[in-house]
Design a protein that fits this description.
The complex is a heterodimer. Chain A is an alpha+beta fold. Chain A contains 10 helices and 10 strands. Helix content of chain A is about 30%, strand content about 15%. In chain A, strands 8-1-10-9 form a 4-stranded mixed sheet. In chain A, a hairpin with a 6-residue loop joins strand 2 and strand 3. Chain A is globular. Chain A starts with 6 loop residues before the first helix and ends in a 7-residue tail after the last strand. Chain B is mostly helical. Chain B has helices spanning about 1-5, 15-20, 30-55, 70-95, 105-125, 130-140, 145-180, 185-190, 195-230, 245-270, 280-310, 310-325, 325-350, 355-380, 400-420, 435-440, 445-465, 470-475, 475-495, 505-510, 525, 530-535. Chain B is globular. Classes of the chains: A alpha+beta, B mainly alpha. At the A-B interface, helix 1, helix 4, helix 5 and strand 6 of A face helix 6, helix 7, helix 17 and helix 18 of B.
Chain lengths: ~270, ~550
């Protein structure tokens, strides 16, 4: 006690004690990791050679998921919301014009940039591989929208509105989103949940036939171009089609590994 | 022309009444400028109100359009301006640039005003302002650049407030004696300061170390803003490892330009010619010219890489910026906002006879406009060229967006005016202690315990937050590590502010006189022995606030 304690020793002691307490708490609560075996991994295959560009999928999606009506001004400003939209590309001039329609739901990437960018965990990946969105958590910073290479996320620029005639057919299974938050395609997860409940009541497991046409877009496609299913099940139609030599994914060089596959005879140029 | 002769005025030549002449709230000019700035600042709130009432549809943005617009450019601009205050102050202190000593605190005020404006702008840009701070703190994800920005901004605000306060504490205590009408305020703010040689030495040492710590934090704040853009692989034009240094440099450029403009206005308004000789403007101008040149070099490098042989997606964006729909704005900003002011500053810098404040301020103004435009050109053009060929609605900033942007500048100026009017901007001359005095005293045990405890708690909290970052729903790591950072930054504050007395005596004092320790009456004269030139100043002849009214 005769001398004042040296500053360096004091600082060392402070550092050691503090780091001990902090780091010691970590292993107790270490992340569970991704080791837990995933039961399903939902994916989609869209056959572009079958697609006629009728936009039935986009309309069905709006009706199913209570997507608000934007009105002419907002549409002009690029503010209308499409969980499922048709990307149209044209090649050539009038007589030799070729058009390609690409139905684009959210790609539900395996490595989604939107989840990395979201500051509040409003968008996360579910155990079954769905990139989900929690509107109540979202702060509306639009970083996910900015980071999505496919522009498959939509901001609610104003309060949701419907004409009276459409109000009557709002879907009670899907909540309406308030203004100022992001919304996106969820692979009709409410339908997946309903299907699971149904098969559990019937005392059997979910089969490929139960889910092939499960999402509203797949169900409504008259050309049957859209197939939904479990990519973890090697015998499902999506697994087999995803292995097809015709299969490709959008912007594969970005490295997001989408779970939506497209089929087309010729190599598609983006 | 006292200016040049007194380029490095000796401490004793300062007239102390002049040091405080900016404090009284009087004069037609002052009230007129308050009225003007308040009117302008109300535009900010008008724009925000529009967004709250009608949603973000009142802006020109859109999902298939510009997802971010000029408000984001404005945020980047104000975050940038906020940098330089502390940078100037820290550099002045670390390199002992006596000539710029009096600039330090003004620059720090600019920091505080600008960062407040920037954070308000963030709140006005997000869709749900009511939950943005709360959710970011409570549910923050460690992998999101937004959370990094929240962390570094909080660190920066708290750190620079502690720094500003400790550097200003002695002057607040002096004002307690010299500005009777605001004695209550300054007494409260001085927190029982005692002007002993040991105390001065302690403050100087702690503030010096804070300056060392704050400089890297300052760099980190704007780097994080670079990362918000530079890490987006899906955005051609943004995805670039160069973004962070590029943003830091841009911050230095626009910050210096703003400091020059603010200094020129305040110097004129408060007749500070004696404290800020023209030579200071020349020096600042040379530095501003240098960093502007560096910025142009960065821009050139970026545009060359973007147009030469990069991936098609990048090239389309940069072609559009340079030769497409943005060409008028781009070349206008580059020639009018960078090259022209650089030429002005260069001519002034190399010619010994030219030393003009209007010229420097004009250059600074053009640079500020140019840099603001450059920020817009970073944010907006990429949205015209998404990787998938969606049809894109053209972006025209709406009235409410312009209201927010222009209102921000008025709001910033108003905040700065309030700070300048409330606190002493100019530093009182100080007898520099050798630094040995502080070593002589031994800290009382309770104080050491408090400081050590805060340091342990701070580091432990940061470690806990970082170690449990993968459990955000259970642990809320950002709150934990931010409380740790605040705890740690309270250490220098405690070292300076906690009294150097054993706890026994502290308690006895309180019992004997049932008043708070910090609110004891000022017995300034007891401590003034060590600053003779302060004692010389007749207290009653100093500007007394509100005296004219009575």
């Amino acid at each position: 006690m005769s001398a004042t304690p040296s500053r360096r020793r004091f600082l060392y002691a402070v550092g050691k004690t503090a780091s001990f307490f902090g780091l010691a708490s970590a292993p107790l609560f270490a992340a569970e990791g991704n080791a837990s075996s995933r039961k399903h991994k939902w994916g989609m295959v869209i056959d572009l050679d079958r697609c006629t560009g009728c936009q039935g999928c986009a309309v069905a999606c709006r009706a199913e998921n209570n997507v608000p009506v934007a009105g002419p001004t907002n549409t002009e400003k690029g503010r209308s919301i499409f969980w499922m939209n048709l990307l149209t590309t044209s090649e050539g001039e009038y007589p030799g014009l070729r058009q390609q329609f690409i139905p684009t739901p959210c790609n539900h990437c395996e490595d989604p940039p939107c989840i990395k960018a979201c500051p509040v965990g409003a968008t996360t990946q579910s155990e079954e591989g769905i990139t989900q969105q929690i509107p109540e958590r979202c702060i509306g910073c639009r970083l996910c929208e900015v980071s999505c290479p496919y522009t498959r996320r939509y901001f609610n620029w104003s309060e949701a509105e419907w004409p009276d005639s459409l109000r009557e057919q709002l879907n009670p299974d899907v909540a309406v989103r308030p203004h100022g938050v992001i919304e996106k395609c969820l692979f009709c997860h409410h339908r997946i949940r309903a299907a699971k409940d149904r098969v559990r009541a019937e005392g059997r497991a979910l089969t490929d036939a139960d889910v092939r046409r499960l999402p509203a877009c797949a169900q409504s496609c008259p050309a049957e171009a859209i197939v939904f299913g479990d990519l973890n099940d090697p015998n499902s139609e999506v697994s087999r089609e995803a292995e097809s030599p015709r299969a490709f994914r959008l912007l594969e060089d970005v490295g997001t590994r989408p779970k939506v596959f497209y089929l087309r005879e010729a190599k598609w140029q983006e | 022309m006292a200016g040049v002769a007194e380029a490095t005025p000796a401490a004793s030549t300062y007239d102390e009444a002049a040091l405080l002449s900016h404090l009284p709230l009087e004069g037609k000019g002052f009230w007129l400028s308050v009225l003007l700035l308040a009117t302008g600042a109300s535009a900010l709130f008008y724009g925000f109100l529009q967004q709250v009432l009608y949603g973000h549809a009142v802006t020109g943005q859109g999902s298939h359009g510009a997802i971010w617009g000029i408000i984001v450019a404005n945020i980047v601009n104000f975050i940038g301006v906020s940098h330089v205050g502390i940078a100037i102050s820290a550099v002045v202190r670390l390199l002992r640039l006596q000539k710029y000593q009096q600039l330090a605190r003004l620059a720090e005020f600019i920091t505080l005003a600008a960062i407040t404006t920037a954070v308000m702008n963030i709140g006005m840009d997000v869709g749900r302002p009511e939950r943005f701070i709360l959710n970011t703190l409570w549910y923050g994800r460690y992998h999101a650049p937004f959370v990094w920005s929240c962390t570094v901004i909080t660190t920066y605000v708290v750190g620079s407030s502690v720094y500003l306060y400790l550097a200003m504490r002695r002057d607040l205590w002096l004002c307690e004696a010299k500005v009777p009408s605001r004695r209550w305020l300054y007494r409260m703010m001085a927190l029982g300061y005692r002007d002993t040689p040991a105390s001065r030495a302690r403050h100087n040492r702690i503030v010096w170390w804070l300056a060392v710590v704050i400089l890297p934090i300052m760099v980190s704040v704007h780097s994080v803003y670079g990362y918000i853009f530079g890490l987006q692989a899906g955005r051609p034009g943004w995805y670039n490892p160069f973004q962070a240094p590029y943003f830091v440099l841009g911050a230095i450029v626009s910050g210096f330009a703003t400091v020059i403009m603010a200094l020129a206005v305040l110097r004129k308004a408060f007749h500070w010619e004696k404290f800020f000789p023209i030579a200071i403007f020349k020096g600042l101008g040379i530095f501003l010219g240098f960093v502007t040149l560096l910025y142009m070099y960065f821009l050139f490098s970026e545009y060359l890489t973007g147009t030469y042989a990069s991936p098609e997606a990048e090239r389309v964006v940069f072609r559009d910026v340079l030769f497409g729909r943005f060409r008028v704005i781009t070349w206008g900003a580059m020639l009018g906002g960078m090259l022209f002011p650089f030429a002005l500053l260069f001519v002034q810098g190399v010619n010994r006879r030219i030393c003009s404040i209007p010229l420097t301020v004009t250059a600074a103004l053009f640079i500020n406009i140019g840099l603001w435009t450059a920020r817009t050109l970073v944010v907006v053009p990429t949205f015209y060229h998404p990787l998938l060929h969606w049809e894109v609605a053209p972006y025209v900033p709406s009235f409410s967006e312009w209201c927010i942007v222009i209102g921000s500048f008025f709001f910033f100026a108003l905040l700065l005016l309030v700070l300048v009017k409330v606190f002493p901007v100019l530093e009182f001359p100080e007898v520099h202690e050798s630094g040995q005095e502080a070593h002589g005293q031994r800290m009382p045990f309770w104080k050491m315990l408090s400081i050590g405890g805060s340091a342990v708690a701070g580091i432990a909290l940061i470690a806990t937050g970082v170690a449990n970052r993968t459990q955000p729903e259970f642990f809320h790591p950002p709150v934990i590590w931010l409380s740790g950072i605040v705890m740690l930054l309270s250490v220098p504050f405690q070292i300076c502010v906690l009294p150097e007395r054993p706890l026994r005596r502290l308690v006895r004092t309180r019992l004997a006189a049932p008043r708070l320790v910090f609110s004891r009456r000022a017995r300034a004269a007891n401590y003034l022995v060590s600053a003779p030139q302060v004692v010389k100043a007749p207290v009653m002849r100093l500007p007394v606030l509100g005296a004219r009214k009575r």
